[in-house]
Amino acid sequence: MDEILAFLKKAGTYFLATDDNGQPRVRPFGTATLYDGRIYIQTGKKKSVSMQMHANPHIEICAFLDGDWLRIQAEAVEDDRRDARKAVLDDYPELRAMYNEDDGNTEVFYLKNATAVFSSFTKPARTVTFG
Hints:
By secondary structure, the chain is of the alpha+beta class. It has 3 helices and 8 strands.
């Protein structure tokens, strides 16, 4: 899991895919925090991505870095604990201009039943499961 988190953090921006009533939706994301032994992502409850993950928690993440890419299939599970929201925001203090762990909008999800595949044009693919 440390290798997956390091890849996401070093890439900076990754792409998160959700399902919107059968229509795929992909958008750039940038949070990835290890908390309580799990990888967490953050968004706002008012955003479409939040509503989509609540309706269908199956997501896919794709990141690209230095000729390698990482794909993660997982279930996004909301964690409504204040400490979890605070941990993610503490890891990304620049988000505090828009979010606060007590604002009623900040929402964090951890990745459950995840399969991560490291791929490259020059190396064989490698699969890791976690969560």
